[in-house]
Design a protein that fits this description.
The complex is a heterodimer of chains A (349) and B (428).
Chain A (H helix, E strand, L loop, with lengths): L3 E8 L16 E4 L5 H8 L3 E9 L1 H6 L1 H14 L4 E4 L6 H18 L3 E6 L3 H6 L4 E5 L6 H16 L7 H4 L7 E5 L4 H13 L29 E6 L3 E3 L15 E4 L11 E3 L7 H5 L7 H10 L4 E8 L7 H17 L4 E5 L2
Parallel strand pairs in A: 1-3, 1-4, 4-5, 5-6, 8-12, 8-13
Antiparallel strand pairs in A: 2-3, 9-11, 10-12
Chain B lengths: L1 E8 L2 E4 L4 E3 L2 E4 L1 H9 L4 E9 L5 E10 L2 E5 L18 E7 L1 E7 L7 E4 L14 E9 L5 H20 L9 E6 L3 H7 L5 E9 L5 E5 L2 E2 L6 E3 L9 E5 L9 H5 L2 H9 L5 E10 L3 H18 L3 E5 L5 H15 L3 E8 L20 E6 L3 E4 L4 E4 L21 E4 L15 E5 L1
Parallel strand pairs in B: 1-8, 2-4, 6-23, 9-11, 13-18, 13-19, 19-20, 20-21
Antiparallel strand pairs in B: 1-12, 3-4, 5-11, 6-9, 6-10, 7-8, 14-15, 14-17, 16-18, 22-24
The chains are: A alpha/beta (349), B alpha/beta (428).
């Protein structure tokens, strides 16, 4: 079997080019290993080979993120790597952000596994730990000897498609990815254990720390709706008959935008609901119960609202992850704003 | 209230000339069970099939699972207010055919009924792969409304559960467990030095096929109330739910509520189990406020030092869970929540639809969005026609060879949010 091909990313300092005065150097690529790449080479043993090292100044990267990313990606691509390793950056802030940024870009564009390393307080750690495997290092390069073998080991596992263990086993920063496993005790027993401990004044570890909840402040009220273009957006799963875009009945990965111009109400011969979270009987008979086109047309005629957008936006709310929902909202809001919509009525079920 | 629960361990199920239990084998008379299902004229056909632990069998779409039980001594009968007269249950003696279950299946009601695999990787996720199942596959009369069909299928399951349970009436149980909770003042006095602990049991009551019944009363219509824990073991609560399969609290799970079971194990040793506060999960904010206020009031009134709270379903009821947590804490109790998680297939989103800082002690019953690969089974009881529109399924979920790729939420009770299973999730 041919060796696994690795490209390594380091900054001006670790490349031995210079310190702060050389932090503005643009991207360059060299064959083989440079600086910490030597330790990496020995940690990878015979299984993999560092085919090239890409180097960029930290200030250059920080000040020209898009250009630096594009240039570096072009260089890295030429070497057809199976694995990309950035850093480790230890506690160097700009270097950490650069390692995270380029590693994420490589993972997304070249679709190969990536590993980097950082000190937990490096600003790059917080920015990228959810997206990347970041080996936890100490705050200085004195930790290189210990960090590099962990980086290499995890990188090889990822390339070979082996099962990656939990953070404390592999040495990466907790990413916050909720992963299943079978506990030795059932949940109710753990719950009773936990409660008894709390009542005895002992410390416990919750199995799910509460997230910082992403609450959206409502906009201030619109005083005069009579000049305003309004759109209807729903998570109630209303779609044209036949569900042309195959929106899921739960855990939606997509949304749809469907035209209803010229219609006075949503009729059951043209529209249906595919929502998996409620008894659809009544809504299948009358889709206006969820997307109230009939009432909105009345309001339009009466001049209560200025105008109704000629389409509605729809998805299924049940089981849909906040990540997906947020991405949908960010995408279709742009269209709504472009189309001059100034108010939205959100209907749920 | 004191209940002796006699457990008769069932190790096989067979068809027989009469319905009886002999040497750990349950024999069922097929025609008798069909006749019970057909008593309801909303059901035009019923078939009975057997599924044993380890067999290459897939059951879908599953509606409910019922453990056969019978009252041997004491007031009332199994499933009071639903298939037997209203009478307070939970005392005396009850026999259970442990290891046997009635599984109702058939043409789908909504989207929310799931799958049981008796072997293979899917079997790991559901307790019903380890039992001996009498499957009742019903066919509804054409044109009946979904909720009428749901009711007919539910009642058929409960009646057959009670009928089969009756076969254990005169059988000597393999094990007898005694559960006892005394009237409040006596119970408090019995273990004056132990912390007083309660269980806040949230019943699914969002409506539109998401219903639960307490002595036959629709849980939407109740205000929170107080229950002796043993009442639930005689079927005071039955499921009428078509909630997502993974966290459906089947009637089996009500009869065998794991929180009640595990609290009794520590009762008199580490805690004083005072009883169960029953509440609901209605959809209107006013209902949520009223019910959670009353839960808080009960916690204060009963002087509870600690409570466990479980929910049924996810999304909307997460709000009730957090409100109950907040108000129970405010009333002076330490709170532990048990629930499951839906952070998306990549596991990166927040897991619950609501959060509150008081929820600092939580037990996870797993991430329901994880994708699982279910190989084809030799036999299908029911139908796979609806796999792609079931919760957890999607376009392309069902392959021509009968294998399935879907989120584990498609499997009955895989992430059930009352802690019945060992599945959990952690941060990677």
């Amino acid at each position: 079997m041919s060796k696994i091909r690795v490209v390594h990313y380091i900054n001006n300092f670790f490349a031995g080019i210079g310190g702060e005065e050389k932090a503005d150097i643009p991207p360059e690529i060299r064959e083989g290993v440079v600086g910490p790449g030597m330790a990496l080479r020995s940690a990878l043993k015979d299984e993999a080979e560092v085919v090239a090292t890409v180097i960029c100044g930290d200030s250059y990267f920080g000040e020209n993120i898009e250009e630096a990313k594009t240039e570096l990606l072009e260089m890295i691509k030429q070497y057809e790597p199976d694995l990309f390793i950035a850093g480790p950056a230890f506690n160097a802030g700009r270097y950490g952000v650069a390692c995270g940024t380029i590693a994420k870009a490589v993972e997304e564009e070249l679709n190969i596994p990536v590993v980097t390393g950082m000190y937990i307080e490096n600003p790059g750690a917080d920015m990228f730990k959810k997206d990347l495997h970041i080996i936890e290092t100490k705050d200085s390069a004195a930790d290189m000897r210990k960090a590099i073998p962990k980086v290499a080991k995890l990188g090889l596992k990822l390339v070979k498609g082996e099962i990656v263990g939990p953070p404390e086993e592999e040495g990466y920063l907790v990413r916050g990815i909720r992963t299943n496993y079978f506990h030795e005790k059932r949940g109710s027993e753990r719950g009773v254990d936990m409660l008894v401990k709390i009542l005895n004044g002992e410390n416990i570890t919750t199995e799910y720390p509460m997230p910082n909840f992403d609450r959206v402040e409502p906009n201030s009220a619109i005083k005069d709706m009579s000049k305003i273009k309004v759109a209807l957006v729903t998570s109630g799963g209303i779609v044209p008959q036949g569900n042309p875009d195959r929106i899921e009945s739960s855990s939606a990965t997509k949304y749809g935008i469907y035209d209803f111009s010229g219609m006075d109400s949503l009729t059951s011969d043209k529209f249906m609901t595919i929502h998996g979270g409620y008894d659809r009987a009544y809504v299948l008979e009358n889709p206006n119960l969820v997307v109230p086109l009939d009432v909105m047309r009345d309001l339009e005629r009466e001049g209560v609202i200025g105008e109704l957008a000629n389409y509605f936006v729809t998805t299924t709310g049940t089981g849909t992850s906040v990540g997906n929902a947020k991405a949908f909202g960010e995408a279709f809001s742009k269209k709504l704003v472009e189309d001059g919509v100034e108010a939205v009525i959100l209907t749920s079920t | 209230m004191r209940l002796e629960l006699g457990k008769i361990f069932i190790k096989d199920v067979q068809f027989g000339e009469s319905t009886k239990v002999e040497n750990g084998t349950l024999y069922v008379n097929k025609q008798e069970l069909i006749d019970i299902a057909m008593e309801d004229d909303r059901i035009i056909n019923a078939t009975i099939e057997l599924a044993r632990s380890g067999e290459s069998v897939r059951i879908a779409p599953v509606k409910d699972v019922i453990e056969p039980r019978v009252k041997v001594e004491g007031e009332g009968n199994i499933f009071p207010g639903v298939i037997s007269k209203v009478k307070t249950v939970g005392s005396g003696r009850t026999h259970a055919l442990v290891g046997a279950n009635i599984v109702t299946a058939g043409k789908i009601v909504g989207f929310q009924e799931g799958i049981i695999d008796m072997s293979g990787p899917g079997a790991e996720y559901t307790p019903f792969s380890k039992t001996y199942n009498v499957c009742v596959v019903v066919e509804p009369k054409e044109g009946i409304e979904t909720h009428a069909y749901e009711e007919a299928a539910r009642l058929a399951g409960l009646k057959i559960g009670a009928y089969v349970g009756n076969a254990g009436k005169d059988v000597e149980p393999d094990e007898v467990v005694v559960y006892e909770t005394k009237p409040l003042l006596e119970q408090v006095a019995q273990y004056p030095n132990l912390p007083k602990v309660g269980y806040i049991h949230m019943l699914q009551s969002q409506g539109l096929l998401h219903d639960t019944y307490y002595y036959g009363v629709d849980a939407k219509e109740i205000v929170p109330t107080f229950m002796y824990p043993t009442e639930i073991m005689d079927g005071a609560i039955v499921s009428g739910n078509c909630v997502a399969p993974c966290d459906k609290v089947t009637t089996f799970h009500h009869l065998n509520n794991p929180v009640i079971e595990d609290l009794y194990k520590r009762h008199g040793k580490d805690l004083n189990f005072i009883g169960v506060i029953l509440t609901n999960e209605n959809v209107f904010l006013a209902d949520k406020e009223r019910s959670s206020d009353m839960v808080g009031k009960f916690v204060e009134f009963l002087g509870l030092d600690g409570v466990l709270i479980t929910e049924e379903g996810y999304g909307n009821p997460d709000t009730d869970l957090m409100m109950n947590c907040k108000k129970a804490t405010k009333a002076g109790a330490k709170v532990v929540l048990i629930t499951d998680e839906f952070p998306g297939r990549d596991g990166k989103s927040q897991s619950l639809a609501d959060a509150t800082h008081e929820a600092s002690a939580l037990v996870s019953c797993g991430n329901g969005n994880i994708i699982v690969e279910l190989p084809p089974m030799k036999k299908v009881i029911g139908t796979l026609d609806y796999v792609e529109t079931m919760i957890g399924g999607y376009e392309g979920s069902l392959r021509p060879d009968g294998s399935i790729e879907a989120e584990i939420q498609i499997i009955i009770a895989s992430t059930i949010a009352n802690g019945y299973n060992k599945l959990t999730a952690r941060n990677y």
